[in-house]
């Protein structure tokens, strides 16, 4: 007997759930009811409605508990940094050969190669010849401008020589200050491989070079240049002017 679908809901041919007679698509499984034929349902029985299977539900907040032994972790664990090692001292430049190590270790581990008396006299003679050229040109120009003959017994010639002493002193101060302040040596000391440094071996600079030449000129005029003998009798060959301003003359070769 054919079932009258107008009496009530009819079962879905696919999932077996009840759907309205006018429905063309199952609202439960989405099957097309127009192409699927509903199986005959015996009278007095209800359609078999499939129930959703119950799957085990796992909570997202479930905490995993390890079953095996675990290693203890100390909260007071601190990483140990390697011990600090200071950097090695810098290598001395080749220019540091101005001093040599003492044979016997002691309070003065480094001794300077100080220049002795006669080499310093030779360097002073070279510097004197360097300064004599501009001094002679200055005297000759003054004599020509004033129309004075070069007569050593002339009073006018003696007056010109005295006047020329003042610019000559300024020229000598400028020469020694600039050369020693910039290069640590004048032309005479450069020719013989010498250098003027502080007592500890550092450069003297322009200020100390100026003080050194002024002190030298004062002692030279007060002692008639005899003060220079202090270079010969001093143990480190330092003249009075070197001891006053704290300088020394050393070899750099």
What secondary-structure arrangement, pairings included, does this model have?
Blueprint: E1 10-11, E2 18-19, E3 99-101, E4 110-112, H1 117-146, H2 155-183, H3 187-191, E5 194-198, H4 205-223, H5 230-233, H6 240-245, E6 247-251
Antiparallel strand pairs: 1-2, 3-4, 5-6
Helix pairs in contact: 1-2, 2-4
What features would you describe in this structure?
The protein is mainly alpha-helical and 253 residues long. The protein folds into two domains: 1-44; 112-251, no CATH class. It has helices spanning 117-146, 155-183, 187-191, 205-223, 230-233, 240-245; strands spanning 10-11, 18-19, 99-101, 110-112, 194-198, 247-251. The protein has a two-stranded antiparallel ribbon. Helix 1 crosses helix 2 (155-183) and helix 2 (155-183) runs antiparallel to helix 4 (205-223). It starts with 9 loop residues before the first strand and ends with a strand. 13% of the residues are buried. Mean pLDDT is 77; it is low at 1-5 and 96-109.
Number of helices: 6
What is the strand tally? Answer: 6
Sheet/helix structural class: mainly alpha
Q: Which segments are poorly predicted (pLDDT under 50) over 5 or more consecutive residues?
A: 1-5, 96-109
Span of the ends, CA to CA: 132 Å
User: Order of strands side by side in the largest beta sheet?
Assistant: 1-2
Strand content: 5-15%
Average predicted local confidence, pLDDT: 77
Number of domains: 2
Global Rg: 56 Å
Along the chain, the helix and strand elements come as: EEEEHHHEHHHE
Query: What overall geometry do the principal axes of the alpha carbons give?
Result: rod-shaped
Helix content: 25-40%
Main beta sheet: 2 strands, antiparallel
